[in-house]
């Protein structure tokens, strides 16, 4: 079935050409899709004759953007850590908490104790909220298991969520999040276990498409990360990194060396690391919610963009450093904290986010042949959307051509004197 959405005040196509701020916006636009795939995008005045007779739906002057892509989350975990939020407000650092046995270790204990069903239900509930924000794809990391049964439990949850909706899922193996407490005095054994057994098994069972490592004084060294990421690449898992988050650690440089698809965080990335990432086409994923919650210095987004690095924006949703899955808020913070323009933040949460998780061929922009994943935003422009921050400006989320979220009440108010609600499925 072919569907046509008309009367879009502005449609941000977010195509590849141009720089980070080039959204390829079309004013007074229309969008045509057939089943899960976009067929035509352009100015409504130029809508091809073959589509004009088709019953169409009225966007009533909304902004339309590609479905947002949250390319960095730790979606599945047991428990919460609001006690650490309090501790940090009293002056404890992230490392103080971690070295005292809290932090990631606390979430590992709670995640090991949770059943698969509990983790599934909880993650699904998060996703039901996330889809309302205009998000169509979520990258989900394991990393709160740190043993085979629990890591696999998390990755199975993600596989079930991928099949059940409401959004698309990309899974990342993060067995190298920290050294588990039981391996504290024999870290090389844990690294060997990941390399020799766990990573090949995850790849063989197709439980993830990416492999991530946290490089940090309280996590893995550069040499350990290099070995782990190479093992991942050999098994067919795309390398990703938590790099230079709390201090400089040579993360950006290693990301370039192993040709990672992304290096994430990067508050303390060096100029040499930024240049190397640019030369090797590594996407930088900025996580302004984590920067804010941990009171870190801002990511040098302008330096990255000026050096030719694509800068993606994501939430880092997790129970410690970023306990929020509000991607539009992260985008507003990218503007405020990192001096990115709203247009740059939008391209960073769409096309470049898709690139950071290897799904650019099918998602991230509104172009003929790509997935019909888009969000209808109650704002006249991307600038206004991110400037006038509200709990939720998204009125409708469409994924693979079907409505996954529709705020009929607000849409009705907006449309009270003009026509009917969109009813396509
Ligand atoms: O991306 N940096 C490492 N991992 C997470 C934090 C996880 C946690 O604190 O539980 C992050 O910030
Ligand atoms: Fe993270």
Give me a quick take on this structure:
The protein is an alpha/beta fold. It has helices at 49-52, 82-89, 94-99, 104-113, 116-130, 148-164, 187-204, 222-235, 251-257, 271-280, 288-293, 301-306, 327-338, 342-348, 351-356, 382-387, 408-414; strands at residues 2-12, 25-34, 37-43, 56-58, 63-66, 68-73, 135-141, 168-176, 210-214, 238-243, 262-265, 283-286, 311-313, 374-377, 394-399, 402-406. It starts with a strand and ends in an 11-residue tail after the last helix.
Write the layout of secondary structure elements.
Elements (H helix, E strand, L loop, with lengths): L1 E11 L12 E10 L2 E7 L5 H4 L3 E3 L4 E4 L1 E6 L8 H8 L4 H6 L4 H10 L2 H15 L4 E7 L6 H17 L3 E9 L10 H18 L5 E5 L7 H14 L2 E6 L7 H7 L4 E4 L5 H10 L2 E4 L1 H6 L7 H6 L4 E3 L13 H12 L3 H7 L2 H6 L17 E4 L4 H6 L6 E6 L2 E5 L1 H7 L11
Parallel strand pairs: 1-4, 1-5, 6-7, 7-8, 8-9, 9-10, 10-11, 11-12, 12-13
Antiparallel strand pairs: 1-2, 2-3, 5-14, 14-15, 15-16
The structure holds N-(iminomethyl)-L-glutamic acid and fe (iii) ion (FE).
Q: What do these coordinates show?
A:
This protein has 425 residues and is α/β, with parallel strands linked by helices. 37% of the residues lie in helices and 22% in strands. It has 17 helices and 16 strands. Strands 1, 2, 3, 4, 5, 14, 15 and 16 form an eight-stranded mixed beta sheet that branches. An eight-stranded parallel beta sheet has the order 6-7-8-9-10-11-12-13. Strand 9, helix 8 and strand 10 form a beta-alpha-beta unit. Helix 5 packs across helix 6, helix 7 packs parallel to helix 8 and helix 9 packs parallel to helix 10. It is globular, with a radius of gyration of 21 Å. N-(iminomethyl)-L-glutamic acid binds next to helix 4.
């Amino acid at each position: 079935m072919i569907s046509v959405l008309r009367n879009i005040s502005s449609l941000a196509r977010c195509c590849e050409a141009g720089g980070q701020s080039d959204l390829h916006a079309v004013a007074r636009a229309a969008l045509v899709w057939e089943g899960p795939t976009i067929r035509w995008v352009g100015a409504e005045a130029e809508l091809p004759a073959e589509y004009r007779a088709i019953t169409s739906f009225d966007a009533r002057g909304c902004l339309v953007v590609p479905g947002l892509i949250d390319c960095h989350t730790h979606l599945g975990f047991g428990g919460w850590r609001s006690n650490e939020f309090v501790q940090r407000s009293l002056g404890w650092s992230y490392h103080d908490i971690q070295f005292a046995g809290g932090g990631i270790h606390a979430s590992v204990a709670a995640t090991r104790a949770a059943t698969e069903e509990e983790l599934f239900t909880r993650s699904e509930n998060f996703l039901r909220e996330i889809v309302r924000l205009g998000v169509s794809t979520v990258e989900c990391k394991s990393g709160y298991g740190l043993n085979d049964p629990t890591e696999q439990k998390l990755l199975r949850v993600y596989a079930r969520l991928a099949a059940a909706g409401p959004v698309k899922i990309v899974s990342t193996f993060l067995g190298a999040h920290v050294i588990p407490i039981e391996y504290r005095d024999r870290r090389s054994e844990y690294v060997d276990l990941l390399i020799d057994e766990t990573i090949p098994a995850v790849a063989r069972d197709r439980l993830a498409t990416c492999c991530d490592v946290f490089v940090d004084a309280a996590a893995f060294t550069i040499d350990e990360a290099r070995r782990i990421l190479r093992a991942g690449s050999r098994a067919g898992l795309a390398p990703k990194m938590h790099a230079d988050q709390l201090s400089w650690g040579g993360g950006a440089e290693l990301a370039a060396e192993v040709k990672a698809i992304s290096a994430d965080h990067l508050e303390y990335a060096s100029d040499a690391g930024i240049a190397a990432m640019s030369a090797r086409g590594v996407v930088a994923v900025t996580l302004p919610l984590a920067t804010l919650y941990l009171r870190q210095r801002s990511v040098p987004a302008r330096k990255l963009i000026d050096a030719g690095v694509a800068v993606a924006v994501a939430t880092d949703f997790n129970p410690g450093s970023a306990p929020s899955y509000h991607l539009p808020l992260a985008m507003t913070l990218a503007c405020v904290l990192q001096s990115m323009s709203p247009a740059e933040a939008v391209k960073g949460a769409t096309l470049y986010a898709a690139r950071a998780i290897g799904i650019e061929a099918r998602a991230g922009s509104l172009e003929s042949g790509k997935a019909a994943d888009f969000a209808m935003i109650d704002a006249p422009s991307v600038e206004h959307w991110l400037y006038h921050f509200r709990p939720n400006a998204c009125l409708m989320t469409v994924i693979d051509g079907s409505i996954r979220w529709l705020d009929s009440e607000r849409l009705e108010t907006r449309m009270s004197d003009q026509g009917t609600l969109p009813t396509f499925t």
